[in-house]
Amino acid sequence: MHQLSLVFFTVLIQASTGLLLFSGIQQFKTIANGQPRIPINNLGFQIILWTLFTMGALASLLHLGKPSNALNVLYGIQTGSPLSLEVLSVGVFGTLLLIYSLLTWKKAQIQKYNFFLGLTILAGLMVSYATARVYTLPTIPAWNSTWTLVQFFMSVLALGSVGFLFFQSQQQEKSSSAPQTRTAIIILFLLMANIVFYNKWSNNIILESGLALPSWNFFIPRIILLVTSFVLLLFSGKKNNYASQWTYTLIFVCVLASELAGRIDFYNLQKISGMLQIFAY
Amino acid sequence: MMKEEYGFHVDVAKCTGCKTCQVACRSLKESETSKFYRRVYEYTGGHWQENNDKTWHQDVFAYYVSISCNHCQDPICVRVCPTTAMHKDAETGLVLVDHKKCIGCRYCEWACPYGAPQFDPEQGQMTKCDGCIDRLARGEQAMCVTACPLRALDFGPIAELREKYGSVDEIAPLPEKKHTRPHLVITGGRHARPALSKDGAVLNKKEF
Lengths: 281, 208
Fold this sequence. Notes:
The complex is a heterodimer of chains A (281) and B (208). The radius of gyration of chain A is 19 Å and the shape is globular. Chain A contains ten helices and no strands. In chain A, helix 1 (4-29) packs across helix 9 (245-268). Chain A is mainly α. Chain A folds into two domains: 1-135; 139-281, Four Helix Bundle (Hemerythrin (Met), subunit A) (Up-down Bundle), CATH 1.20.120. Chain A has helices at 4-29, 43-62, 75-79, 82-104, 114-135, 146-169, 178-209, 219-239, 245-268, 276-280. By secondary structure, chain B is of the alpha+beta class. Chain B has a domain at 6-70 and 131-207: Alpha-Beta Plaits. Chain B contains six helices and twelve strands. Chain B has helices at residues 20-28, 76-80, 107-111, 133-137, 143-147, 158-165, and strands spanning 6-11, 39-45, 48-50, 56-58, 61-67, 86-88, 95-97, 118-120, 125-127, 153-157, 184-187, 200-202. Chains A and B meet through helix 3, helix 4 and helix 10 of A and helix 2 and helix 3 of B.
């Protein structure tokens, strides 16, 4: 599967966007109360965020047959190539993220940079939108749908919400995370519902194409991983206190694995397209 | 403004599926790539059914469609290319790859419904039919057309081809024309099925 690097690229960049989104919301909410308990310029948070972003960005380069020509993607900005615009959006997001990280580095009061933080989050969300545009090709019916956009944003929300809980759990400070846990529970529920409906929709396309498509191999594993995470979150929420680090680490790993598997299924659907159907299987 | 827009004519009624076009193209481009720029699809279908009087009737059919790049009017590979490496030649309208620009992202491969751009792992870049543009400059025909022993292929300005052979440009197992407007004219045989038909299947998939 030659798109494996793109699976990692899209999922990891969306994870970093989601993580920044949920941490940002936490930070905006604490404006009135002064400094957030765990600020975004916390070293641990920065390490997790930059690891996700850097690994995602590097994975995208692995997809290129001729990486030495990579800068040529700038030519496509003028012609409006969705791929060029996606690369541009990743560049803008990365640059804003770097500037924000440098501005707030080791500073005690970071609230004054909240506007810049909001701008960076917006740039991250634009990456997911630009990525969805890359795949909504009229010649690939299984991609040419609003489902593509919905899936990508669900990944942002799911990975962001559980990623934030995972990050919080890495901190020494024991504090209640009940509201965040409730949010993550709702998002995971919506994600599971989304997967079921999307599966039904895409199976119709597979049937229409008349192909014996070995897609959705990961449907059952995905649901198992998400149900596991869901139950663990419910358990954590019930206790109304801070669950163990390991619990949140397991939840994050399960949701991440589920999203990676889902993205593999997504790329498999590309084969229902014109003459590619002939060579697919 | 293009001076001419070139395209292909395929006469399905004449084609016997000998694949001389495919082999000739491959031989000419051997130093360039290991890919088949032109492919001959064997499309067959139909059934045998028993009548009430215990006799049988059948509607079995088979035909061959020889296809390479259609050098479309509105090529989606050119539209989506992030580097502008995929472009239409100003003189001939042929869709070409500029290997100085191509990054091998394979986006054109995804987008093209005809599977014309193909990724060459050795080069790390896309390759495709160039309409034998160098032969064209010397006043020669495309190699596949020259090689066809049945004279089932033709290549030239698409306006002339349409005038000569008509305007049919979609047939099973090819996709619908609406996304790219191919510079292709097809003379279908009596068995020819419309694009997106589920009557038959391509039987020689493993050849490619």
